[in-house]
Amino acid sequence: MTDTDTDPAATPLAIACALSPGEYAERLREFRRLFAAALRDVRREPTRLHLTLEAAPGREAQVQDLLRRKQECCPFFEFAVEARADAVVVRATVPDGDDECLDDLERHAGRALGGRRA
């Protein structure tokens, strides 16, 4: 018997999204709209994505709501949000070995920034 057999907290989270394909596409559109409107910087580490968004009235609440809903369908994500005077900083983290889960967010963030720099 292993620790995961006796301790439910030791059971790893399933790496799967609970959204239907249509819901997943809509969620990505929400992230793309947010990134197009507010993203200033993105930085990637193997299991972590750092996003810096422009501060604006209601921005922190908007980000918190979107990330809460993202975590509901993908509980393996962990998010930290820090509101600053000039920015809302997000840190998205996934378990070791599951870095591909950040790829969609990073790709859309990169496109948003690339479109502004072009």
Summarize this structure briefly.
By secondary structure, the chain is an alpha+beta fold.
Which helices and strands appear, and what pairs or packs with what?
Layout: H1 3-6, H2 21-38, E1 39-45, E2 48-54, H3 59-73, E3 78-83, E4 87-93, H4 103-117
Antiparallel strand pairs: 1-2, 2-4, 3-4
Features:
single chain; alpha+beta; 4-stranded antiparallel sheet; 4 helices; 4 strands; 118 residues
Structure description:
The chain is of the alpha+beta class and 118 residues long. It has one domain (16-117): 2-Layer Sandwich (Gyrase A, domain 2), CATH 3.30.1360. 44% of the residues lie in helices and 23% in strands. It is built from 4 helices and 4 strands. The chain has a 4-stranded antiparallel sheet. A hairpin with a 2-residue loop joins strand 1 and strand 2 (48-54). The longest helix is centred in the first third of the chain and has 18 residues, at 21-38. The radius of gyration is 16 Å and the shape is globular. The termini are far apart. Residues 1-11 have low confidence and may be disordered.
